[in-house]
Every structure is written in structure tokens, then in C-alpha cells.
Write a structure and sequence with these properties.
The protein has helices at 11-23, 34-44, 60-68, 105-119, 130-146, 154-171, 186-189, 194-202, 204-207, 239-250, 263-266, 271-281, 304-317, 329-338, 360-364, 368-379, 392-396, 400-423, 425-471, 477-511, 517-540, 543-552, 562-602, 604-613, 619-643, 658-670, 676-681, 683-730, 733-782; strands at 48-54, 84-89, 97-102, 183-185, 210-217, 226-230, 254-261, 290-294, 324-326. By secondary structure, the protein is α/β, with parallel strands linked by helices. Residues 50-287 form the Dynamin N-terminal domain.
């Protein structure tokens, strides 16, 4: 647990206990718990991202350095890189580390191409050609020099960015992968220290090709999930870098946005700064979490015009001064460091400002802080001369460093305290820390409570409803018996209706869809057997046998006409196909009713009916009777269907059709000879003629027509039979009453015991629910969120004395005056039972 509040130490266990209780109830487990799980994760393992945004040179990095008291981030006037920096917590100083993510060669090429296009330069064909890269570097350098310096305008910034990007690629080619981002720790580069990483990243040729830096530092401001993020400038020369900044500013997970402006230094808001303000103020989702910092406030101490311009912007842009700060990151940062030094190391000249800790350019010049510190002491107007007089030793000092030493020798820590106070850093640090701990962190717990509330309301209502369903059951055996008998008529009607509805549902599954797998399988089997049987009959057809059969019917004639042969064939094929169709229909009907009967036997209404009557109320007899009726009707339909096969199809004689052509060919071949042998020779043609005619008839039966016949037969008979059986069940009241009289005594005793066990189980579950909810509420109270307590179940909710009227269920009400930060009592939510719901599953 990231928050050291005793009442919240086991919050995750308590919340998961409530979730587990919900998942145990089948009727509730469909409730979406994703929001609860997400809120819980944020509450117990928070990550507060504090995003610093602003233009280049606004002082974001120096401000972050001042907050942490360490020079981690690159900080310099003019153009910096598009690197995004994350600063996260390290548990101990030995855990500190830095991880660098480099741009891929593909990303570098894209940026070079974009910059060259905007600058009007030709894009290099191959970055690995050193001479080509140097040529482009020189061209970029010439451009920003022509513009009057690298920070003069956007074109100059782009030219400087291109020069640094190319230099960084050349210097770090061994770390840049063609397609992927190389990730290296400082230990893999050189020294693993955080300060070494800062120096490495400060070099422009390195920073230009670093995509992301992750610092892990041991600092109290970073505890409990606080993450400081330094974004690229909103006026970045590469559009991708600007978008990175805005994506972080507007992201829903960003806890705070620190907008840093340099208005105090130049007197105006830049166009990019104005756009940033407008986007924030027009976005209701982020404007309430924004801190506005006007850096370089020390510039207004020496220039009244800058001071007036700044005040005008503040009065115009902001309706109040809440979360608006005036700071000097430079003075605040070094002021914090100097407060930790003393005269023996010449107030940091031998440590902080030693040449080994400075870049080459800084080592050759007087550190900027010393110059600004001297200005602060002499001309800022911030100091009282009665408190901080100019002593003779100070007045006699000549160089900046001599003046710096004499000033601190005379006024020491008191002056540094005043400097840090005037820099505005302490107030800014205190306010943002207070926001995260007192505002933002409780918001996470409040969000968790709000997401968990519907779950608790559902569980509470469910438990109490089940409790009162059981509590309202009769408590005496005679009362249970009387209740059962009074309900008997309605129970019989309900069972009859359920039987009828069950049959209708089964019919719908069978007739209106292919969901009845057994029925569908049997009919497909019927189709297959009919087609296979036709093929077999055609193949085995014998003209000789047909000739004999036809001649036996006319013994006085020695010659048999072809039409007689065909007539014998038509009758023979029709009879054989009829046998196959009847067999398949018998199987289909038998399997359908066997499946239906077995499923009815397993249905709940069937067992309830058996309990009431001691028998099935005639259901099996009805189903058997219906099976016989359906069987007879389907077999009759099969006989009729195949009986019609004897008649030729109309196409058989239609001119221009295949059957007509085949018939003429067959007749011609058979009539070439008047004896038996001529007929035998025409046998292949006769088979083909029979195949053409019968295939159409059989396919019409099995593919288009006969399933509908069977479906209608089953549907019509079962609809009528189910309705009649439903009425029969309802009419057996006297039989049911006589049967129940024999068993109600024992059932009533079992019912009482069963209800008692269920109530005990519900009570145990309610206790488990209350234990978790009370523990969660204690945490909320400790966080100052007593008004948002979750609803528990009180003893009075289970007491008949307080609930004799049994009004309808309502959601627990909230008393706005019940500020329970000082009271650990559970939320007082009234329970009101409603209509019956299913009793909890055993």
C-alpha cells in the first residue's frame, strides 16, 4: 500500500472480498467490474504524472531541477531537444539509475526529411555518408547564423535542430538501430550515476538522438507514485515533438499539468503559449488540474515595463491567482544548493561551481547564478537594507566572485533563505505536493468508492431480498401445508403452461431452424438414402426382367412394346423408393419423439408435476399418442409422394427438352428390332431416360418439398396435443390434493429446516460483506471521504420489528450533513424489501 494510513493497509483485500462475493451469485456476476478493478489498482498503486509543458527556453527543466534540488535535466537558453524525460522514484540512493531510449535510424531519417523540406534543403540520400552529413550540417549552421542566432525564429530553431540531429547521428551510430529503438542503461554506456547521465544528455549531439530518458531518483517528492515528466517544447521545430507534448498534457491519466511561461522575461505571450492557454481553458477535462508558472520573475525586478506587461497578462488571462505562480528557477535551484554549503568551501565555489562539475563553456565564464545573485543583492529591490546592508568589504569587492563571497560571508544563510523565498520555488513545491496528497490522492479513493458503490448496492439489495423472502415464509408446519394447498391450483396451471411453452419452443427449434441436431441429422440421412437408392435402382435395372414382367401380363403376345417396358420400370422404381422413404420417415419420427420425451422427463416442470400428482399427469401417454398420429400421417404422405413418381414429369414430353430427346433416341434404338434382343441392346438408353426423369422427382422431394410436409405434420399435431395436455394437467386438482396430503407433513418439516439453513448461510455472507464494507469505510473516513461511505447492512435491516410494513426497495440515501470524518460508524442506509426475487443458490 503506497499510503501509510493504517485503515487502508488491507484495502485491496477488502475490495477483492466484495468482488468475490458478487461473483459467487449467478444472477449478479454479469455486472461489469472492470471499472472497480482499474480504480483499485490506481488507489493502491497510484501513478501521479506531473507533466511540465511550455516553449523551449521557458525554464521547465531548471524548474524541475529546483524542485528536486539536483541538476538532472538539460537546461540552457536557446533550442533544446525533443527528448521526453520521466523522473520516477528509487527506493534508496543505491537504486538510482538512468535508462536511455535512442531514436531509430528510420525516425531520424523522417525528422531529417521533415526539417530539410521546411528549410528548403535537399534531403541526403545516405546518412552514413560522412561528407554528405557534414555538408548538410554546414548548410544548417549557415541558415541559423543568417537568421541571427539559433533562437531568433522558428526557421533558425529548425536549422539548429537539423545540425544537432546530424551531429548526434554521427556521434552515436553504434547505439542507433536501423528500425528499432535501442534501450541502454547508463551502466552500459559508462558510469551508472544519475549525474553522469545528466552530463551525457546535456551534450547536444547526444540529446538530439535520445527519444526518452528515464531517471530513477531517491527523492521524497517522487514517493507514492509521483512521476515528473518534462516534455519537448510546444514550439518544437519538429511537429512530432510538439504533438508528444500535447498528447501528455491532454491524456486522461495525467494528474497535473505545469504550464511554464517566459512572459516575465520577454513581456509577451508567444503565439504557441497563447494556443496552449486556449486549448487548456477550452478543455474541461484538464483545466482543473493545471498549474501556471511564470518563470524568470527576477527579470521584472529590474524592468518596470516587463513587470507591468506581466501583470497585465495575469489580470487578462486569469480570474484569480489560484495555482498561478511567479518563479525564478535559476535562483531557486542554486539557492537550494547553496543553502547546503558553507564558508569553508567558499559557498559552493569549490564544489558546485568547481570546473570539474561544469561544461567547458561554463568553466570559462562566471557562472550565471553568481551574476544574477549579485544583481539580486544590489539592484533587485527585494531586500531590506536594514536587514541586509552593503558592508565595506562588499563595497570594496571588484569581481563577481569576490562580491559573491563577501555578500555571503556577511549575510550567509539568512540571505539564501530570503533568495529561495523570493524565487517562489518553495511555495510552488508546497502547493503541488499538497495537491497530490490532499486533493489528487483522495480523488482516487473517491473514484474507487463511486465505482464500488453499485456493486455494494446490488449485493446489499440481493442479500436483504433473499433474507426477507425466507423471513416471510411460514414458520409452522400447518401454515406451510395450508399455503401449499392454496397454491396448488395455480401450480398446476403454471406447470401446464410451462409444458405447452416447452413444446412450442422445441417445435420452434426443430421447424424454424437447424438447431435440433438429431432431427437435422435424420433428415439429411433421409436425403442421402433416397438419392443413393435411386442410383442403385437405376444401375441394377434390367430390361430383361421388365420384359418378362410385361409379357406375363399379356401371354398371347410374343412382342413387348417399349412403352410397356418403361411402364414396368416406373412402377418398380416408385415402389422401391417408397419403401426407402417410409423406412427413413419411421426412423425420423421415432427419434424425434424419443428425444422430446427424454428432454421433457428432465424438465423441472415434469418433476414438479410428479411431486404434485404422483405421476406424470398423462404426458407420456399424450406423447405416445401424438407419435402414432404423426407416424401415420407422415407415412401416408410418403406413400402419396412416391406414388406420384409413376407419372412422368411434364418435361418428359416437352419438345426441345433433354427427356424428350432421350425418349426419341430410345424409341428409335428399340424399334430397330422386333425381338427381345433389340430391347436388351437399348438398355443403357432406357436407364439414362429413367435417371433423367426420376432424379428431378426425388430431388424435389428430399431437397424442396418433403421436409416442409413433415414439419407441418409435426407442428400441427403437437400444437393441438400440447394445448390439450396443458388443460388436462390443470383439471387434475383433486388428484393432486389427495396425493399431497400424504407427503406435505414431511415436506413441510424439510422446508422449515432448509429455510433455516439458507438464512444462516445468508447471515454468514452478510457478516462477510459487512466486515469488508466497514473496513473500506474506515479507510474512506481516514482519507477525509466520510460522506462517500458504502452501504452496509445493519441489524435493524434484518429485524421484523423495524420492517413490518415491507415497503419497496430503494437505493440507500445519503445525508449531506453526515460528515463522518470523525465518526467510524457504518453508513446508515435504510433497507426496504420489494417483490420476490430468487432465493440465494445453495
Amino acid at each position: 500500500m503506497s499510503v501509510n494510513i493504517p485503515q487502508c493497509q488491507n484495502l485491496d483485500q477488502q475490495v477483492n472480498s466484495v468482488i468475490k462475493l458478487l461473483l459467487q451469485e449467478s444472477s449478479l456476476r454479469s455486472q461489469d467490474l472492470s471499472a472497480v478493478r482499474t480504480s483499485l489498482e490506481k488507489a493502491i498503486s497510484p501513478r501521479f504524472e506531473i507533466v511540465f509543458a511550455g516553449a523551449f527556453s521557458a525554464g521547465k527543466s531548471m524548474l524541475i531541477n529546483a524542485l528536486l534540488g539536483r541538476e538532472l535535466l538539460y537546461s540552457a537558453q536557446g533550442h533544446a531537444t525533443g527528448t521526453i524525460c520521466y523522473i520516477e522514484y528509487a527506493a534508496t540512493p543505491s537504486d538510482e539509475k538512468v535508462v536511455l531510449t535512442f531514436l531509430s535510424e528510420v525516425e531520424i531519417r523522417e525528422q531529417v526529411h521533415e526539417l530539410c523540406q521546411t528549410l528548403g534543403l535537399s534531403t541526403p540520400g545516405n546518412l552514413h555518408e560522412i561528407e554528405e552529413a557534414k555538408r548538410l550540417q554546414e548548410a544548417a549552421k549557415t541558415l541559423y547564423e543568417q537568421e541571427g542566432g539559433e533562437s531568433r525564429n522558428q526557421r533558425a530553431k529548425r536549422a539548429k535542430a537539423l545540425e544537432q540531429l546530424l551531429a548526434g547521428f554521427v556521434a552515436n551510430r553504434d547505439k542507433i538501430n536501423a528500425n528499432n529503438n535501442t534501450i541502454l542503461s547508463m551502466g552500459e554506456l559508462a558510469d551508472n550515476g544519475v549525474d553522469s547521465a545528466s552530463l551525457y544528455a546535456r551534450r547536444s549531439q547526444n540529446s538530439a538522438v535520445i527519444k526518452k530518458i528515464e531517471y530513477y531518483c531517491h527523492h521524497p517528492l517522487l514517493e507514492d507514485g509521483n512521476v515528473i515528466i518534462d516534455t519537448p517544447g510546444i514550439d518544437a521545430p519538429v511537429q512530432r515533438d510538439t504533438q508528444i507534448a500535447y498528447d501528455k498534457i491532454e491524456h486522461s491519466d495525467t494528474s497535473a499539468v505545469v504550464c511554464v511561461f517566459k512572459t516575465a522575461a520577454n513581456g509577451e505571450l508567444t503565439s504557441e503559449e497563447t494556443q496552449l492557454l486556449e486549448r487548456i481553458q477550452n478543455n474541461s477535462g484538464i483545466r482543473d488540474r493545471v498549474f501556471y508558472v511564470f518563470n524568470y520573475i527576477d527579470a521584472t525586478w529590474y524592468d518596470d515595463q516587463l513587470k507591468n506587461c506581466l501583470n497585465r497578462h495575469l489580470n487578462t488571462q486569469f480570474s484569480s491567482s489560484d495555482r498561478v505562480y511567479k518563479t525564478s528557477g535559476l535562483l531557486g535551484f542554486y539557492g537550494e544548493l547553496i543553502r547546503q554549503t558553507h564558508g569553508s568551501d567558499r559557498w559552493g565555489l569549490d564544489s558546485i561551481f568547481a570546473k570539474g562539475n561544469l561544461s567547458h563553456q561554463e568553466a570559462e565564464e562566471t557562472p550565471k547564478f553568481i551574476v544574477e545573485f549579485n544583481n539580486y543583492f544590489f539592484t533587485s529591490g527585494q531586500l531590506s537594507r536594514s536587514s541586509f546592508p552593503i558592508t565595506p568589504a562588499i563595497g570594496y569587492a571588484e569581481t563577481h566572485q569576490e562580491k559573491y563571497l563577501q555578500i555571503l560571508n556577511a549575510h550567509g544563510y539568512n540571505l539564501m533563505e530570503q533568495l529561495v523565498l523570493d524565487s517562489g520555488i518553495d511555495q510552488f513545491r508546497d502547493d503541488i505536493t499538497r495537491y497530490l496528497t490532499e486533493d489528487r490522492r483522495p480523488q482516487l479513493f473517491q473514484a474507487l468508492a463511486e465505482d464500488l458503490r453499485p456493486v455494494c448496492i446490488s449485493l446489499r439489495s440481493y442479500y436483504l431480498q433473499n433474507w426477507w423472502d425466507l423471513e416471510n415464509q411460514p414458520k409452522e408446519i400447518d401454515a406451510i401445508k395450508d399455503l401449499q394447498l392454496r397454491q396448488l391450483s395455480q401450480d398446476l396451471k403454471t406447470i401446464g403452461d410451462e409444458f405447452e411453452q416447452y413444446i412450442k419452443a422445441h417445435l420452434n427449434q426443430t421447424v424454424a431452424s437447424n438447431e435440433n441436431a438429431i432431427y437435422d441429422r435424420d433428415f439429411r440421412n433421409l436425403q442421402r438414402k433416397m438419392i443413393e437408392r435411386l442410383d442403385t435402382l437405376i444401375q441394377k435395372f434390367s430390361v430383361g426382367e421388365a420384359y418378362k414382367s410385361a409379357q406375363s401380363n399379356h401371354p398371347n403376345s410374343a412382342v413387348v412394346p417399349l412403352l410397356a417396358i418403361l411402364a414396368e420400370a416406373f412402377y418398380s422404381l416408385s415402389d422401391d423408393l417408397k419403401v426407402t422413404l417410409v423406412e427413413c420417415c419411421e426412423t425420423l419420427v421415432a427419434n424425434f419423439f424419443q428425444q422430446l420425451t427424454e428432454q421433457v422427463h428432465q424438465a423441472d416442470f415434469y418433476h414438479r408435476l410428479y411431486r404434485l400428482l404422483g405421476n406424470d399427469g398423462g404426458i407420456d401417454a399424450t406423447l405416445n399418442q401424438l407419435q402414432r398420429k404423426v407416424h401415420d400421417a407422415v407415412i401416408s404422405a410418403a406413400n402419396t409422394e412416391c406414388g406420384a413418381y409413376v407419372r412422368e414429369t411434364p418435361e418428359f414430353y416437352a419438345e426441345g427438352t433433354v427427356p424428350h430427346f432421350q425418349l426419341r433416341q430410345t424409341l428409335r434404338e428399340a424399334c430397330n428390332s422386333a425381338d427381345y434382343q433389340g430391347m436388351v441392346e437399348a438398355e443403357p438408353a432406357i436407364r439414362q431416360l429413367l435417371k433423367i426423369d426420376f432424379e428431378k422427382k426425388v430431388k424435389r422431394t428430399v431437397l424442396r418439398h418433403f421436409r416442409t410436409v413433415i414439419n407441418l405434420t409435426i407442428n400441427d399435431n403437437l400444437q393441438v396435443g400440447a394445448k390439450h395436455q396443458s388443460q388436462t394437467i390443470f383439471s387434475q386438482y383433486e388428484t393432486a390434493r389427495a396425493n399431497l396430503a400424504k407427503t406435505l407433513e414431511q415436506e413441510a418439516e424439510e422446508k422449515l429446516e432448509h429455510n433455516h439453513q439458507l438464512q444462516e448461510k445468508i447471515k454468514q455472507t452478510i457478516d462477510a460483506y459487512n466486515n469488508s464494507v466497514i473496513a473500506i469505510n474506515d479507510c474512506l473516513v481516514a482519507m477525509g471521504l466520510g460522506r462517500g461511505k458504502l452501504p452496509a447492512i445493519k441489524d435493524t435491516d434484518l429485524d421484523p420489528v423495524f420492517n413490518y410494513q415491507q415497503p419497496a426497495f430503494t437505493e440507500p440515501s445519503y445525508n449531506i450533513e453526515d460528515e463522518q470524518e470523525t465518526s467510524p460508524e457504518i453508513f446508515d442506509a435504510e433497507f426496504t424489501p420489494t417483490e420476490k426475487s430468487p432465493v440465494m443458490s445453495e
